[in-house]
Amino acid sequence: DEYAAEVREQEQLWISRGVTSVPTIVFNDQYAVSGGQPAEAFVGAIRQIISESKN
């Protein structure tokens, strides 16, 4: 099935990038928050990304 092949391809891509759990939210293709996290985890990640982008 063509869709299954695409899903497997994407699965392998994200596994190769270190994603091992669902959900995993990826920011800017380089920062990730894994698992079911409270809103504060996302706020912290976004603040860190903003801080690093200013430097």
UniProtKB/TrEMBL annotation:
<dbReference type="InterPro" id="IPR036249">
    <property type="entry name" value="Thioredoxin-like_sf"/>
</dbReference>
<feature type="domain" description="DSBA-like thioredoxin">
    <location>
        <begin position="2"/>
        <end position="46"/>
    </location>
</feature>
<protein>
    <submittedName>
        <fullName>DsbA family protein</fullName>
    </submittedName>
</protein>
<dbReference type="GO" id="GO:0016491">
    <property type="term" value="F:oxidoreductase activity"/>
</dbReference>
<dbReference type="InterPro" id="IPR001853">
    <property type="entry name" value="DSBA-like_thioredoxin_dom"/>
</dbReference>
<dbReference type="Pfam" id="PF01323">
    <property type="entry name" value="DSBA"/>
</dbReference>
